[in-house]
Amino acid sequence: MPQHIVVTDYNPEWPRMYQEEEKKIQAILRENCTAVYHIGSTSVPGLAAKPILDIMPVVKSLEAADRVAAEFEKLGYEYLGEFGIKGRRYLRKGGDERTHQIHIFQEEDRKNIDRHLFFRDYMRTHKKEREEYAALKKALARRFPYDIDGYCEGKEEFIRGIEALMG
User: Fold this and answer.
1) Is the pTM of this model over 0.90?
2) Quick one: CA torsion of 43, 47, 52, 53, rounded to 10 degrees?
3) How many helices (H) and strands (E) does the chain have?
4) C-alpha torsion angle, residues 148, 125, 24, 87 (rounded to 10)
5) What Pfam families does the record point to (predicted)?
6) Please, is 60 exposed, middle or buried when counting C-beta atoms within 10 Å of its C-beta (0-12, 13-18, 19+)?
7) How confident is the model at residue 1 (pLDDT cuts 50, 70, 90)?
């Protein structure tokens, strides 16, 4: 069954849930991990979101991350490789009704790391755009309740517009 897209109001428990998962991720990646960030809509106070935590570990070596894939699988993650973004390792927990997504990037991949952090930080500091994005996501969830591609494509123009401000 395809993923059911549901956008909910901001949940103040999301930061705590992120911190719990971050500890588990750092314990697996150990010294290979140089940073872990809470990204995506659940990382933006006040922003409506699909209740899925997006977590971005930054590592010294993707190959070393690949070697601990089984450790992530013990926590319930599927280790899906690049999954459409060159230089990323994508993991998800919960299958089609996922609860967590991990996006691992190597520390030299500043383009991908910086765009995720820029978008998050922009949404945190620009209320008007945050409200526009929330309304867009709610409308897309109603329009594409079982079409994740349609939902994501519907957000693309908005996201790229914000990312273009990065310079």
Assistant:
1) yes
2) 0
3) 6, 5
4) 60
5) GrpB
6) middle
7) low
